[in-house]
Amino acid sequence: MGRGTDIGMNSNKQHDTYNQNFTHPFMSLDGYTTIQSEHIELLASELAKREQPIISQFEPIADFEELYTFSEEHPTPIEFSEQHPAWRLESVAARVIEAIALIAHEPLNDLGWQSLARILLEHVEYLYTYPEAPTAREKLSAGSALALAGSVCAVMPQSELWRLAGFGRIAANLAEIAPTTSDTHVIQPLEAAFLLANALNLPILDSAVECYNTVLNCDFTTQNRFKFPLGDDTFFHYLNLEFPGLENVKSTFFKGNIVSAKSAYTAFCTEFSKNFKNTLHLGQTDTYNTAKLSLECLLKLSIYPTPPIYATTEIGIAALLFPEFRFSEQLLMLTSRRYKWIVDAFFYPDGFHKDTSLRSQLEAVTDFARFLQTYNKVQHPRHFQCAEQIKTFLEKQLEVCFYIRQPDLSFPPLGANVSDNLNFDELCNINNFTQRDSNPQSSSYALSDTGYYIMRNSWEADAQYLLFDGGPLGKPGYEDKLSFVLHAHGRQLITHDHRDKNNNSSSTASERHNVILIDGKRQPPESEIVPDPDTQWITTSEFDFVEGWYKTSDYHHKRSIFYVKGEYFILHDLVLGDGNHSLEQIFHLDTCSEQVITSDIGQACTREFGHSNIFIGAVDATNLEVKLNDNRLTFSVQRKLPVVLNVVLFPMKPDVEHRPTINSVSVNTDPDVLATGFTVKSNGVTDTFLISDDGFSKMSTSVPDEKVEFEGEYLFLRGDKFVMLNARYLKVGTKILADLNEPRESYVNM
After folding, report:
1. Contact in structure between 623 and 638 (CB atoms under 8 Å)
2. Can you tell me the distance from the alpha carbon of 600 to that of 613, in angstroms, rounded to the nearest whole number?
3. Which of 7-16, 262-271, 699-708 has the lowest mean pLDDT?
């Protein structure tokens, strides 16, 4: 085999002819491929003949005993395991070449050939199922090994799709790599794949031949080229003419009457589709031409199933709708195995897509639903391995969409948002989901893995709603960790700027979100853990609280939001670091600048008659500059770190112009404690807040007529009603309202 390629196993043992009586284990992939025991025995008997041309050029690095031991200790995973060095595509491809070298050079007994056949098949199925790799070089190595193995295993019925996929992946990646003749560990398997397929007169993908000759300056010729679009003979070759209902198709085809065979097949498709009038896609398969086009697309997707979720769904649906296709079972098993991988690889345990894009989430919901609807309608006779798992996961995905929806049923403006005209009800209608009969008991909800925290006071259409993004960062270009959106009393009040950053907006990725910029920018964060252990979330019927961190090498930013349910939100920003810096708090208002009133005391308010509005007020307006650029409101200050910025977000119902009064209060505490205090007065009620940014601390302050003494981290006080976070003691005037033995995460008297 090619030198210099890591096959992912120890190869230092001495060569020893395999004559031990190893027991034949069950396939680790049993249930996720169409390979059965008889297939292994068939291939083993063929390999034992040692009549394969071409492959004698490969010299084994290890002996069979080492390969067998590795296989026993590291069973081929059902799912793609790219993080494990042994199961990266290049390592798997190298072991496939190693197995082929052993076929050519190492004598084995019957059990040995069966074990070698099993190992080879498991590795080939892995390469076929998962073409994903970070580099074109790795994809090319995997494609070459797959194409070569597809010829070595030509006796296997599954090998035709392996070989097609292998040559397709060669065609897709060879030009980018353009290897030279000295690059033997790439060139040798590549050349062998073409030579062996040609020697056995097996079809080679036409685009692969063209690419091979062009890139390597060869003059390779073959009489057996596989081309798209499919010819009539090739199409009928891909049909299982023994399938019930195809008797007339078979008869006329073997008589050479292609026209009659096409008519008979159209009649078969028309009759088949009558049973599925309401099933998506089936109406498109009732003629020969549309069926042939569908099968061409299916074969192309099997070469490179991208994008992964959509392509896998299309493969699965086509395999269900074309049971007469010779490889429908093989492709259905491919779908099952890829779905199992997709659920774990593309989604957090809480059910949200890992790129944290709402568009990706809703597209996945639709794809999973399309497959399950087709599967249930067709009632495939063979149990689909992942059907129940997909159904359960789809319910979790839909539950996420249910909780994340805004009061008007629209989806919040997150990442690459969906079109404005798609809401939760329409998502359910499109996918035939049954609506929930009743509202859940909890109005607020946390997606702790995704980092989305939803605050709301009710499920009514005029409810208040805030979604806080606690990370991880997710998709590049959406640097929205610690950002938020706010919807209240019938409309969006704070949103994101989703204009195209290249065409319609001069803002950076960070500026398009409601975050803090330091010196006009936002540095890349340190590596993140999922879920973020620094995030805190508390929800009750009276209040919600969330806290998250954004940490860089130069500064740490903590943002918390305290929600007095049904009333208003307190935004608390702490920036830790050294030196003087410019800090900008950004708020994207969902209105035009003409509808916004600003003041020089750190306040702004929208004024749209007949609609809800929002008041945004800074607690400390010292040297604070209020800027309004289109709909982007900025509170800008120049201060020495550490800096604390407190802001009141006060939604107002339509035609209500009441604004709260905000005042700072002095806080008495230890000199090394960073603490702030303020009051918010609204509708004749005064609320007092004491906040320590150094954890549990003793604090006191004087509000009108009374002294407040508090031991804890966060206090909300309204008369003798209160919320304490990480606290144990509260005294107002002469009255002790709380005196606990030890601090509690939250303690409420509302």
Report:
1. yes
2. 20
3. 7-16
Write the pLDDT tens digit of every residue in 484-509: 999 999 999 999 886 644 444 445 66
The pTM for the full model equals 0.86
Q: Please name which of 398, 472, 391, 469 lies closest in space to residue 428, comparing C-alpha atoms.
A: 398
Question: Rg of the chain's alpha carbons, rounded to an integer?
Answer: 33
Is the bond leading into 305 cis (omega within 30 degrees of zero)?
Answer: no
The candidate with the shortest Cα–Cα distance to 239, out of 272, 274, 283, is 272
Q: What type of residue is 104?
A: A
Question: Which residues does residue 584 pair with via DSSP β-bridges, in sequence order?
Answer: 517, 636
Residue-wise pLDDT for 24-53, tens only, equals 334 456 677 889 889 999 999 999 998 888
* Dihedral of the alpha carbons of 90, 96, 101, 102, in degrees to the nearest 10: 130
Alpha helices (runs of H) in 347-495, residue ranges in sequence order: 358-378, 387-404, 424-430
User: d(Cα 202, Cα 479) in Å, to the nearest integer?
Assistant: 51
Question: Residue 56 corresponds to which amino acid?
Answer: S
**59 in the Ramachandran plot: left (φ > 0), alpha (ψ -120 to 50) or beta?**
beta
Is omega for the bond preceding 407 within 30 degrees of 0, making it cis? no
Give the C-alpha separation, 387 to 393, whole Å. 10
Helix, coil or strand: residue 745: strand
Bridging pattern class, strands 536-539 and 543-551: antiparallel
Contact 125, 93 (CB under 8 A): no
Here the tokens at position 363 are 């597209």
Extract the runs of DSSP E, i.e. beta strands, from 457-595: 464-469, 484-488, 491-495, 516-518, 536-539, 543-551, 556-564, 568-576, 580-589
CB 357 within 8 A of CB 370: no
Q: Is the pLDDT of residue 59 over 80?
A: yes
Alpha carbons 476 and 402: distance in angstroms, whole number: 26
**Three-state DSSP string of 55-114:** HHHCCCCCCHHHHHHHHHHCCCCCCCCCCCHHHCHHHHHHHHHHHHHHHHHCCECHHHHH
Q: What is the DSSP string of 638-686?
A: EEESSEEEEEEEEEE-TT-----EEEEE--B--TT--EEEEEEEETTEE
Q: Is the pLDDT of residue 418 over 60?
A: no
Q: Cα separation of 280 and 245, whole Å?
A: 22
**Residue 590 backbone phi and psi in degrees, to 5:** -90, 55
Nearest alpha-carbon partner for 91 in 73, 106, 70, 107: 70
Please determine, for residue 435, whether its predicted confidence score (pLDDT) is greater than 80.
Answer: no
Cα–Cα distance between 570 and 616 in angstroms, integer?
A: 10
Residue with tokens 């010779």: 326
Helix 89-105 and helix 110-129, axial crossing angle in degrees, nearest 10: 150
For residues 685 and 698, the answer to whether their CB atoms sit within 8 Å is: no
**Listed residue (206, 131, 125) closest to 169, CA to CA:** 131
Q: How far apart are CA 651 and CA 365, in angstroms?
A: 33
The one-character DSSP state at 719 is T
Q: What is the largest CA-CA distance in the chain?
A: 104
> What 3-state class would DSSP assign to 748?
strand
For 233-306, list the strands marked E by DSSP: none
The answer to whether the CB of 15 falls within 8 A of the CB of 103 is: no
CA nearest to 523, candidates 479, 484, 482, 483: 479
